[in-house]
Structures are given as structure tokens and as C-alpha cells.
Amino acid sequence: MIRRIVIFAVFLALSLADAIAQNSIDRLVDNYASIGSSSFTSAVERDPKTLKVKKVVNVLKLSHMDIGKFISAFKRESEGGDFTEKYDSEGCNMILTVRKPAQNRIYMLRGSKPYYPGRRDTRYSEVKITIIVNYK
Fold first, then answer.
1. Cβ contacts of residue 44 below 8 Å, gap of 6+?
2. pTM (2 decimals)?
3. Measuring CA to CA, how many Å separate 111 from each of 15, 24, 25, 30?
């Protein structure tokens, strides 16, 4: 009996950790969407017959921001999906794809016009974070 409880507790903890990690980028987007130098756009695509949600696209645009928290969140969550990052003289790109049974999530971060071109830095003039959720 104790063995079953321990196995259930471990399974529950792993499930919750995955859900918490996935929501860290979403929480950051929600927090930054309400500050002065940002714009937030959300679009929903529905099935016309059933009116079920098929896709949600959220876009957050920031100006003159330090995006270190977003970069850290992307790297933390990279264990739960496919992650790519690229730095060049124009800025940085990060893409995280998370596949789940009920939905697929794509997180994209683009920092352009870096304050210090050619260096890996976290300060950019223009930042765009896009979250695409495809429901199955």
C-alpha cells in the first residue's frame, strides 16, 4: 500500500512540475503584457461547425527591454520539448516546441536590434514573443 502511495506521489509531482514549467513563459507574457512599453495581441481560430477552439496565437511585442528572464524560461523549459537557439549580429532567435496529447505549443522569441551587436546580451531594442497553441 505504501509503495502505491509513493509511486502515485512521484507521478503526481512529475506531472505538476511539467505543467508549472510550461506555464512560466505564459506567466511572463501575462506580466509583461501590462507594462507601458509593450503591445499584446491574441487571436483565436475556431472550427465553424463545432465552435471548438482549434488554434490560439498570442503575440507580445516589447521595446527596449532586458529579456534575460525570458531567455532563462526558454532554457528551463527546453527539457520538455524541442529547443533551438541562434545568435547573430541581428539579434537572437529561440524556438521551443512542446507536444502534448491534447495540444501542441510553439514558443518563439525574437530579439532584434541588440544594444551591443555581436555579443550575447539580453538587452534589445525590439522583442517579439509569439505563443501558438494548436488543439487536437
1. 53, 55, 56
2. 0.78
3. 31, 19, 15, 18
User: Which residues lie below 8 Å from residue 22, measured CB to CB, with a gap of 6+?
Assistant: 77, 80, 98, 105
In the chain the first and final C-alpha atoms are separated, in Å, by 37
Listing DSSP states for 2-51 in one string gives: HHHHHHHHHHHHHHHHHHHHHHHHHHHHHHHTTSTTEEEEEEEEE-TTT-
Q: What is the DSSP letter of 117?
A: T
Q: What is the pLDDT of residues 9-51, one digit of tens each?
A: 545 454 544 444 457 888 989 888 888 778 999 999 999 999 9
Q: How many CB atoms lie within 10 A of CB 44?
A: 11
Distances in Å between the Cα of 57 and the Cα atoms of 46, 94, 108 are 12, 17, 11
